[in-house]
């Protein structure tokens, strides 16, 4: 009856949400999901470390140091970007049971887009060495933004990416299960779930403008740049489930990332003028800065 009566749309929507919510409560145990996510993150971290060790045994310590520096850098930037994902899910009121699917598509798209950007970046740097200065300026600006006193954007209604996607993707006002498309009044339309995926994909491209130049500041090897990106973002879905509710506790992570981006930018500028900073020093600065940021955040939380 609800399906055939066009005046009962709100009731239909509420009924669907109630059914989805009740079935989700029966099937999902938050503690079980969290335990599974922790195991998944541990597996991906172990795989990343194993890959780095194997790379060191095959290619030498320098290549392994470049990989671990790039991996730590990408992982920290990915954690920082999770805050934006939390805002996007809240803005579009994405039901919890659908968030994993959105993240899965987002991660798959991120791997493809980053591979393309890495190939283009490698070709550009090989032809135009001065591009290093442009990338360094991008990192310096990003570092400045992380240290500035401006508050994070929590209202996405005026966000450029959100407004652009809403303009070009006609969507329904309600979710239809986990579908990306549905039929409304005989017309095929996208659901808010597809719009959410589009916003996350475009947001990741914006994130990559910071992260990929940062890794190029550590290494010029496109294989290491790609693999450090790959291992950092593949475990992002499980990591989101673990820390999405406590993002505000990592208060000193952003300043730590700002220090790292500023250091990488300085390194790129010095490299351009012939003053080289070793990969081991870079790895030490990245690991120390990020570790200090996380440790200080945890200490303040315990107080």
How many E-type strands?
Answer: 2
Q: How helix-rich are the residues, as a percent range?
A: over 70%
The major β-sheet equals:
2 strands, antiparallel
Instruction: List low-pLDDT spans.
Output: 1-27
Q: What form results from the Cα inertia axes?
A: globular
Strand content: under 5%
Taking all residues together, what is the mean pLDDT? 78
Rounded to an integer in angstroms, the radius of gyration calculated over CA atoms is 21 Å
Task: Map the helices and strands.
Elements: H1 9-27, H2 30-59, H3 61-91, H4 96-127, H5 131-147, H6 160-168, E1 181-184, E2 187-190, H7 192-216, H8 222-234, H9 236-243, H10 253-272, H11 279-302
Antiparallel strand pairs: 1-2
Helix pairs in contact: 2-3, 2-8, 2-9, 3-7, 3-8, 3-10, 3-11, 4-7, 4-8, 5-7, 5-10, 6-7, 10-11
């Amino acid at each position: 009856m609800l399906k055939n009566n066009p005046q009962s749309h709100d009731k239909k929507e509420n009924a669907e949400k109630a059914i989805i919510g009740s079935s989700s409560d029966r099937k999902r145990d938050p503690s079980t999901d969290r335990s599974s996510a922790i195991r998944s993150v541990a597996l991906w971290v172990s795989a990343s470390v194993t890959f780095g060790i194997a790379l060191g045994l095959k290619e030498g310590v320098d290549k392994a140091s470049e990989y671990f520096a790039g991996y730590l850098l990408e992982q920290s930037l990915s954690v920082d970007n999770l805050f934006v994902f939390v805002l996007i899910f809240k803005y579009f009121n994405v039901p919890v049971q659908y968030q994993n699917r959105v993240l899965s598509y987002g991660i798959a798209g991120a791997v493809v887009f980053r591979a393309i950007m890495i190939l283009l970046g490698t070709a550009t740097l090989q032809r135009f060495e001065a591009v290093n200065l442009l990338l360094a300026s991008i990192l310096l600006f990003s570092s400045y933004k992380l240290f500035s006193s401006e508050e994070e954007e929590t209202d996405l209604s005026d966000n450029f990416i959100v407004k652009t996607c809403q303009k070009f993707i006609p969507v329904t006002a309600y979710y239809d299960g986990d579908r990306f498309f549905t039929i409304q009044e005989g017309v095929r339309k996208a659901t808010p779930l597809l719009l959410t995926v589009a916003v996350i994909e475009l947001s990741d491209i914006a994130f990559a403008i910071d992260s990929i130049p940062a890794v190029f500041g550590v290494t010029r090897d496109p294989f290491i740049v790609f693999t450090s990106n790959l291992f950092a973002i593949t475990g992002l879905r499980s990591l989101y489930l673990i820390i999405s509710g406590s993002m505000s506790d990592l208060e000193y992570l952003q300043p730590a990332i700002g220090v790292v981006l500023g250091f990488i930018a300085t390194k790129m500028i010095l490299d351009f003028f012939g003053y080289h900073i070793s990969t081991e020093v870079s790895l030490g600065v990245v690991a120390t800065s990020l570790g200090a940021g996380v440790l200080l955040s945890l200490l303040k939380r315990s107080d």
